């Protein structure tokens, strides 16, 4: 396996293991040779003691080395067989490893279901390194993705992604990950129905849906096409219109972070109580994060009253970071994430602009469902995505609005540093989802 320049040490794990054995063997030979030379003229008593100590040292070292190898093989073997039940392994903590053998998991140019805003190589991106990074957790491996196993798990079931365009990004990723395993085009279809997009694997009677609901409750941004409003309004007590779409789902993956972020420092939102029809409408203005809590409260209440804990699995995706401020990783802000080709390698890196508090807030609300036996699994993908400043479409995507001369002259001004190229980072998010669905 070849690696990018200057990073050979990051992807030569197997070679490193072999080198370790070679170094040990060579060291042992030198030690034995040195021992023979040293004790040649030593007294018999001293010679026996030294010989015994050297033999003991070699034996102990061998045992330790073999035990380390067996532990590592056990960990690798367990995860390759897909046993992801070890709760001590934190999938979210790890590093990106360059892997041009097992990555990418699919060919983006051949995925008929890919969306033009994330098909970066189709729209001119020449460097494809972003497709070849594999996420490696510390101390274990992610379960190996198997599309057929997932489709069997989804047989006669419905999986629904509910949220914004980043959640749609993850939905497209999963569809591309599974559709390549259905070679007959007659056995897979995509259906558009307003805010709902459905992918159906007919042979399995499996449905993978995406439903546009960026603020979870009803809002003035619910139109899947025209939703870029300067001031957002949510209806605090209205969720049933959206919930009726996902009510019968077997698996639901929610996300809702991006639309609660401030676009300007003084940005606030309005929360509507009551209705104009009943004549009791009331509007309160508040901070974006307070609106987020109102939406979470309503969602949690609905889940607690309507979810069949024995049927439906619920997931909530962590915040997907943007990379619009290059100064976070030592770059020039005017470039945003333009021309980035490698991840951030600093372990534990967290951008100053990435908000981890929203996920903590979501967790606190979902904990209130635990006494009812309803568990919401968080897909903790924020930190691993924070490293990937190279993974965004930037200018390599379909532009739905014609570019101005000023934009063309300044590519960073319209570079997309929010969504993700496919194949790419969202594939790992779906490996997390796969692990929870198939192996945990």
Which short descriptors sum up this protein?
seven-stranded mixed β-sheet, 33% helix, 10 helices, single chain, 2 domains, globular, alpha/beta, 12 strands, 440 residues, three-stranded mixed β-sheet, disordered N terminus
What would the principal axes of the Cα set say about the shape? globular
pLDDT average, as an integer?
84
* Percentage of residues in strands: 5-15%
The strand count comes to 12
Largest sheet: 7 strands, mixed
End-to-end gap: 31 Å
| Category from helices, strands and their pairing | alpha/beta
Helix content: 25-40%
How would you spell out the order of helices and strands? Answer: HHEEHEHEEEEHEEEHEHEHHH
Protein name: Trichome birefringence-like N-terminal domain-containing protein
Keywords: Golgi apparatus, Membrane, Signal-anchor, Transferase, Transmembrane, Transmembrane helix
GO cellular component, one term: Golgi membrane
Organism: Miscanthus lutarioriparius
Describe this structure in words.
By secondary structure, the protein is an alpha/beta fold. Residues 1-44, 46-51 and 53-86 have low confidence and may be disordered. It has ten helices and twelve strands. The protein folds into two domains: 8-77; 94-439, no CATH class. It starts with 12 loop residues before the first helix and ends with a helix.
Task: Show the helix and strand layout.
Elements: H1 13-39, H2 44-80, E1 94-98, E2 133-137, H3 147-153, E3 158-163, H4 165-179, E4 188-193, E5 196-201, E6 206-212, E7 233-235, H5 240-246, E8 251-254, E9 269-273, E10 282-286, H6 288-306, E11 313-317, H7 357-366, E12 376-379, H8 382-386, H9 405-409, H10 425-439
Parallel strand pairs: 3-6, 3-8, 7-9, 8-11, 11-12
Antiparallel strand pairs: 1-2, 4-5, 5-6, 9-10
